[in-house]
Amino acid sequence: MARIDEELVFAKQAKTAIEGKLTEEAIKLLREATRIAIEQVVFSGEGPLRDARNNIGFLLPPVTEVPEGQQEQDDIDNAKSAIDFWIQELEASTAE
To answer: How many domains does the chain have?
Structure first.
C-alpha cells in the first residue's frame, strides 16, 4: 500500500503522461497509477478522495486498454479530469 505522498507522486506522473504523447511507456505509467489508486480504495473511507480513486479506476482504462494511438479524445479528456481531481484530493489530504 502506497502512502499518500507516494500516491501523489504517481498521480503527478500520470498527469504528465496523459498530457503528452500516449506512448507505450506513458500507457504503462498510467496503468501503474490506476493500480495504485484502485489498491488505495480498499483502505480509504468514504469521501472525495475515495471518489477520486474510484474515478481513476473507471476513467483511465478506456485510455490504457486500447492500442497506442487509438484512444478517443473524450476518453483522454475524462482521464485528464479524473487525474486532476485525484491530485486535488491527495493534496488536500496531505494538507490536513
So the answer is: 1
